Amino acid sequence: MRIHAYSMSSQYTIVKGNSVFKLKFETHFYCLFLFLFFYMEYLELVILGTLAGFLGALLGIGGGVLLVPSLVFFFHVPIHQAVAVSLIAIIATSTQVASFGIQHGFANVRLGLFLEIASMAGAVLSSFIAVRIEGHWIERIFSLTLFITAFLLIRRPKGQRITLEPNDDVGYFGGQYY
């Protein structure tokens, strides 16, 4: 976007994409307002990224659950690009939260490393498949995955314990590594 200001006549020409807006204002304050108005998309992306980082770190979801649908529906980004952008964006979030979890003893590093190896195999396979299928199939798979996850979380028995007691058997992957 380009903004041309003619201060002698207080006329402003705003060019955004193929649209040209010629406006006349009495003060330069309106030029600043229009400049901010046309850059609101960047502010929206900053808010979306902050919210995705917050929820991703809080819930352990990486933020992609929020980023991908938001990029597709609100910013009209194709699903293939939205998934790739989301994966790039959550690298920093995941790294920071993982280091915090390890530092405070929340993370089971042995289990995490085992899952990392297994998930890398799945990621390699899915990257070959993702470039060969149409975007609407990825959208359907994404939606189905979110639906099943939400259904399972809602249907979990109310009395089910999700925390471990000090004497609980944690199995082969139990324990922490420092």
SSE blueprint:
Blueprint: E1 2-6, E2 11-16, E3 19-24, H1 29-38, H2 40-59, H3 64-73, H4 79-103, H5 109-130, H6 135-155
Antiparallel strand pairs: 1-2, 2-3
Helix pairs in contact: 2-3, 2-4, 3-4
Order of helices and strands: EEEHHHHHH
Structural class: mainly alpha
Instruction: Report the strand count.
Output: 3
Cα-based radius of gyration, to the nearest Å: 24 Å
Q: Level of helix content?
A: 55-70%
Tertiary shape? extended
Q: Strand share of the residues?
A: 5-15%
For the record, give the distance between the C-alpha atoms at the N and C termini, rounded to a whole number.
Answer: 51 Å
Strands ordered across the widest β-sheet: 1-2-3
Instruction: Identify low-pLDDT runs.
Output: 1-8
What's the number of helices?
Answer: 6
Mean pLDDT: 76
Largest sheet properties: 3 strands, antiparallel
Task: Explain what you see.
- Strands 1-2-3 form a three-stranded antiparallel sheet, covered by helices on one side.
- It is 61% helix and 10% strand.
- The radius of gyration is 24 Å and the shape is extended.
- The protein has helices at residues 29-38, 40-59, 64-73, 79-103, 109-130, 135-155; strands at residues 2-6, 11-16, 19-24.
- The model is unreliable at 1-8 (pLDDT under 50).
- It has 178 residues and is mainly alpha-helical.
- A hairpin with a 2-residue loop joins strand 2 and strand 3 (19-24).
